[in-house]
Amino acid sequence: MAKVRGAIVVDIEKCKGCGLCVVACPSKVIDLAKEVNGKGYNYAYMSNPEACIGCANCAIVCPDTVISVYKVKTEANA
Amino acid sequence: MDIKDIIKEENLVYSKTKVLTDNVMHYCPGCTHGVVHKILAEVIDELNIQEKTIGVTPVGCAVLAYNYLHIDWQEAAHGRAPAVATAINRLYPEKYVFTYQGDGDLASIGAAEIIHACNRGEKMLVIFINNGIYGMTGGQMAPTTLEGMPTSTSPYGRDVKMTGQPLKITELIAQLPGTCYVTRQAAHTPAAVRKLKKAITKAFDNTGKKKGTSFIEVVSTCNSGWKLSPVKSNEWMVEHMFPYYPLGDMKDE
Ligand SMILES: Cc1ncc(C[n+]2csc(CCOP(=O)(O)OP(=O)(O)O)c2C)c(N)n1
Ligand code: SF4
Ligand code: SF4
Ligand code: SF4
Ligand SMILES: [Mg+2]
Question: What is the CATH code of the structural domain delimited by A2-75?
Answer without folding.
Answer: 3.30.70.20
